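Encode chain A's predicted structure.
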Amino acid sequence: MSAVAKAKRPDRKFPRYKVPLKARLNGQIVVVSDWSIAGLGLSDIPAALQLNESQPVTVLLATNGSTLEVLLNTRLVWTDTSQSRAGLEITDGPKVTAPLTDFADLYLAGRVVQKDTNIYVLGKSMSESQSIKSSVVAAAPSAGEGGMVGRLFGLAIFAVVGIAAFLFLFDVVYKRLFTFEAISASVSSEVVTVFQPRDGVVEMLSLPSEVSTGQKLATVKLDAPDLDGNTVIDIVSPCDCYVLAEARPLASYFGRAGTQMLNLVPKNTNPHVSLRIPFRQLETLTNNPVVSLTYLDGSKVENVQIKSVPKVSEYTATQLEVIVDAGKELDPSAIGEPVYAVFDTAPWR
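Encoded structure for chain A:
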């Protein structure tokens, strides 16, 4: 006795889901009763379909706040006209069916919730799951231009920060290798000092900022008459000078002979800058370094000329005096003001 083997229905390769979806077939909306990433089960189909016939179907993934339309190419594999049902096989590749795959992943992760006929996706809208290579009618907003602007802005910031860091490091290394600062520097000039000739009471006059030769500066009332019988001596200016400073701010006081009374600056004298540098930097002076001066008013003068290096008058092993040109016109009132001095020994300077 022989037995006839019955054809076995092939096992499904992909799980099918019962989440109801909608689809557009031949211009009419039908119900997707079950589906997988490889096929669709349709209900309420409008008319009889031919087996193995290619059918373009648009699957509508309508969730809260968004609707994604995925156009698929399918082939009819079975139909039941009595129940108006049909089964379609999706013939497109995984790039086109990517939205269905994402929706299935969300469903398996428990993020797809169905209430009545509405479908909700927790924490994500289906428009965000669209593949950029899928044939989609209603696409999510593209961020291509915004992304390009953001990348360009980021590159610009990176370039600016990089250039700033490079310039900062270059400045630090340059100053470390080729520059050094003066220990001290100040505006200086030739000064004429007026001393008190005899003991007595000094009466200072109210002086202007400029005096001429022979102009009376002060009087000294002597304790006793001198050899000529004078009891008062007039102190006069020895030059056409600027009045730099008075030794004492008092209008009247008793002073001893040889006491400093006034400091005067001759008008024909140009102020200069006197500075001190470490003695070990003496060799750099022979290489004609570039000297830069910065004054209290914020003005800066570069490449000033070294006028002289006074002889050492007393033993010192730490500092060396250098006289440099001021580099600009200075008011006599600036004499004594501190100056910031820098020497640049770079060979190309």
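The radius of gyration is 50 Å.
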